[in-house]
Amino acid sequence: MAEKKKETQTNIDPKLAIAAAVAIILIAAGAWYFTQPMAGGVVPPQNQTQLDNASAALLLGSYDRMAALQDYHLKYTNTEDGEPTTYDIYKNGANSSVSVTGTFGMMEGFFSANNSTDVVCLTYKNVRKCAMAGNDTTMQEIADSLRIYRSNTKAAASQKSKTEELLGVGAIRFTSSPVPEKVGNFGTEMLAYSLDYRNLTVQQLISIGVQPNDQSIYRITNWVVQNWVDTATGLIVKSSTSYKDNLVPHSFTQVYSEVKIGAPALPPVPANITPAKSFLQFFTDSQTDYTELLNCGAAGNESAACFKTLAFSRQDPEVCRLIKEPLAEEQCTLVLAQTMADARLCNGLAILHDDCYIAVVGENGNSSLCAKLQNQSSLSNCLKAVGDGQKKAEQAAMAKQRLAAGMNCNADTGCKQTGSFGQYCMPLNATVPSTNESSPYSACYAGRPCGCVQGYCEFRQNDTYDKCVDRVDEGFFNNFVEQIKAASNQSAAENSTNHTN
Description:
The protein is an alpha+beta fold. The chain has helices at 21-28, 54-67, 137-147, 153-169, 202-207, 216-219, 276-297, 303-314, 317-320, 326-340, 353-364, 379-406, 463-500, and strands spanning 72-80, 83-92, 95-102, 105-111, 119-124, 127-132, 172-174, 179-183, 186-195, 220-230, 236-245, 248-261, 415-418, 424-427, 450-453, 456-459. It has three domains: 21-261, no CATH class; 318-404, no CATH class; 409-485, no CATH class.
């Protein structure tokens, strides 16, 4: 790859909260933890029964099949603690594509022999943007985070080696012989095993790269893995892992829906390409948005309150729908419907249906909304709200008129910079104040952009102006310090003269 030129610097995580790629396949192998290189040779096990059986041959052989993959189409869904993420991967010679879809949206990568022409896409909240990776470091990092999902000969060989080590020391123990079982469209053999490091000797732990004082040896328990190996391809097409971490149960499943060996037709590369800078801004904003949602979801008993606060600050009713408690969700939606005076948000509310419409009527005075009430006993309250709503609507209209009347421009061409040293930004037809004033800031106004900002002639923010003002202020401060020094020196001299006399 050509040397990368860093064009954009950000602090974002290129994976955008996607589940860690390396862990996904290692979990299925039962080797999620302790994947460091061996500190020494494998200690010969007391017996070879775990390595020398049909289940071991089936499991280890599946890694050989994965390592041998060249051209293929694989599609599978990983579900970790109830959260699904779907992966759709195509490879045809030097060209390939990867898409990852989950609660965060969808990330896509379109790859060729020339990495600089690779394209990455993000779809978030139904908005899709794509950009070329080019030589931008951050864009290449995002592309790399998607490339790792492609079948990798080295990674498959490493997984096989690690599994052999775990079998050799007895950390993996099969619970039964392979059992024929149908999985979707696949005819498979199911094998099951447990994973436990607690009975290994210190020497055995060190031999597989595990520190004997690693607390996770005893913290993570009840580790059970099941793999379903496709009899046609020899690949694992389903895996299930369960374990407890500090007695808290966790689960992980991986289920394939497509396994096609051979050169596939690749998805088309997007034609609508966004500049990298614009894409990265969209990427960063989306990550910030998604992280806020994740934080609220992880807030426990405060989750509903967190989502409400976020929904109100964003004026986004979609956030309310993330609240699990039905009443709290509808309360959130009602407040937004009232704030936004949007009766459409009341549709579909089961608990607060009528209350929502009455709240909206109290904002816009639309009496026709009272006909949408489900309980006619609420009609009198709705009709009372009509009067309040009409008053509020009239007041809002008058405020809008006053605001519009106060505006003095529609475009930058309707404004002028004027004054003895350009200190005013005014409408073209405005009278310039008569003044001969001067100011130490006079030079700072030169070149400061004057234009129409939201209906008013104003100076725009300008770094050159700000730096100029800072220099003038610094000059004032330095002069002040010098005056203090001079006064202090004069006072000292006078005191010395008085003392001599």
